[in-house]
């Protein structure tokens, strides 16, 4: 009898996971980030914005695509590094600027383990910060470098593990056919 109850609970849990994966809240689609070869999976129709930002005395364009689904914000940003600049130094400066924007304490940053991928230099980190409204939020960021392009894939909120892994695992470099 105990085994029947356990099987029933497992079946209910599996059904809930399947329904969450098929939920209209997360309508996954592949999105190309700017003119780069980066493709990401986003769970909602993104909006795009860009602005000029100073980077070590040079003006660069920061492009962001983002959307909100299920009380979670998914954002992907890209920044091109001018030739002669150090992508590592710029990535570090970008991380500090991101932390400042979140009003997060850099001493509270924790590493976030992400599986390595060929052709991608990646760093994952997470921190508690504040949304622009002042509401507290956990933020997970995956910093990616490829050549002279830097990317930040960020999740603001507490997604289910399978939602987070779909977002992170969906990032890949693929040129247009």
Folded structure, characterized:
The protein is of the alpha+beta class. Helices cover 25% and strands 41% of the residues. The chain is built from three helices and ten strands, in the order αβββββαββββαβ. Strands 3-4-5-9-8-7-6 form a seven-stranded antiparallel β-sheet, sandwiched between helices. A three-stranded antiparallel β-sheet has the order 1-2-10.
Entry summary:
With 177 residues, the protein is an alpha+beta fold.
Based on the model shown, name its key terms.
177 residues, alpha+beta, Protein Transport Mog1p, Chain A, seven-stranded antiparallel β-sheet, 10 strands
The beta-strand count equals 10
> In terms of structural class, how would the helical and strand content be classed?
alpha+beta
Low-confidence stretches: 5-21
Instruction: Please provide the ordered H/E string of secondary-structure elements.
Output: HEEEEEHEEEEHE
Q: Can you tell me the CATH class?
A: Alpha Beta
Domain tally: 1
> In CATH terms, what is the architecture?
3-Layer(aba) Sandwich
Beta-sheet strand percentage? 35-45%
Share in helix = 25-40%
Mean pLDDT, all residues: 83
Principal-axis shape equals globular
CATH level 3 topology: Protein Transport Mog1p, Chain A
SS element count, helices:
3
The rounded distance between the terminal residues' Cα atoms is 57 Å
Largest sheet: 7 strands, antiparallel
Question: What is the assigned CATH homologous superfamily?
Answer: Mog1/PsbP, alpha/beta/alpha sandwich
How are the secondary structure elements laid out?
Elements (H helix, E strand, L loop, with lengths): L1 H21 L6 E4 L5 E5 L4 E9 L2 E12 L2 E9 L6 H15 L8 E2 L9 E10 L5 E11 L2 E8 L4 H9 L2 E2 L4
């Amino acid at each position: 009898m105990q085994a029947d109850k356990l099987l029933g609970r497992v079946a209910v849990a599996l059904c809930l996971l399947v329904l969450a994966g098929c939920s209209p809240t997360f309508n996954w689609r592949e999105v190309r980030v700017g003119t780069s070869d980066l493709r990401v999976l986003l769970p909602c129709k993104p909006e795009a914005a860009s602005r000029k930002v100073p980077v070590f005395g040079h003006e660069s364009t920061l492009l962001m695509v983002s959307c909100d689904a299920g009380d979670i914000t998914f954002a992907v940003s890209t920044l091109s590094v001018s030739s002669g600049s150090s992508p590592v130094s710029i990535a570090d400066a970008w991380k500090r600027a991101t932390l400042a924007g979140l009003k997060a304490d850099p001493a509270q940053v924790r590493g976030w383990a992400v599986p390595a991928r060929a052709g991608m230099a990646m760093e994952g980190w997470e921190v508690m910060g504040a949304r622009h409204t002042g509401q507290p939020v956990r933020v997970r960021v995956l910093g990616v470098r490829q050549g002279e392009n830097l990317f930040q894939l960020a999740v603001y909120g507490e997604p289910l593990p399978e939602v987070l892994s779909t977002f992170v695992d969906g990032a890949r470099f693929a040129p247009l056919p």
